[in-house]
């Protein structure tokens, strides 16, 4: 009986050690992923590791409520952060980064586009129409509605609105009127490149 009891206890301890080892390796893997994302954000954004750590830490919290991992959010952010800083004319804060990426993620989820494509398209549209960060939520809704009504993918739509805006120069309408123009042209069957 003692031998059976010891065998069961040893088996249970072995199973516990395997579970503990798996949990530890998962935690270590997440830590390495977080550190990698931090380095990428710091390197591409020209910011200190401390600033980047604060931002990627916030992305970790964001990922708990979203469908994207912290690494996906950080990677998409890394591709736009330099330009976003220029648009905002300041060093990016945690609040700037999370506000922008929350809108990009909402747009990605609603449109079925990748987070990377949504964040880049959103930034390019912000730049073309000089939309401040406080109005990005409204811009996100407008772009989704235009994309949804015309069937034009968001990435293509961002490029289209930017090109139309550049060609129209100072005569370019605001994004709402530009959307109405694109919807009218699309409904009439007019396509362009």
What would the keywords be for this entry?
about 80% helix, about 190 residues
Q: Your description of this structure?
A:
It is built from nine helices and no strands. The protein is mainly alpha-helical. Helix 1 packs across helix 2 and helix 2 runs parallel beside helix 5. The mean pLDDT is 80.
Present the secondary structure layout.
Layout: H1 2-45, H2 49-65, H3 70-78, H4 81-88, H5 94-111, H6 115-129, H7 136-150, H8 154-168, H9 175-187
Backbone structural class: mainly alpha
Form type: globular
Helix and strand element order: HHHHHHHHH
What is the CA–CA distance across the termini? Answer: 82 Å
Radius of gyration, whole Å: 23 Å
Average pLDDT reading: 80
What is the number of E strands? 0
- Please describe the biggest sheet, giving its number of strands, its sense, and whether it closes into a barrel: none
Q: Helical element count?
A: 9
Helix residue percentage: over 70%
Structure in a nutshell:
The protein has nine helices and no strands.
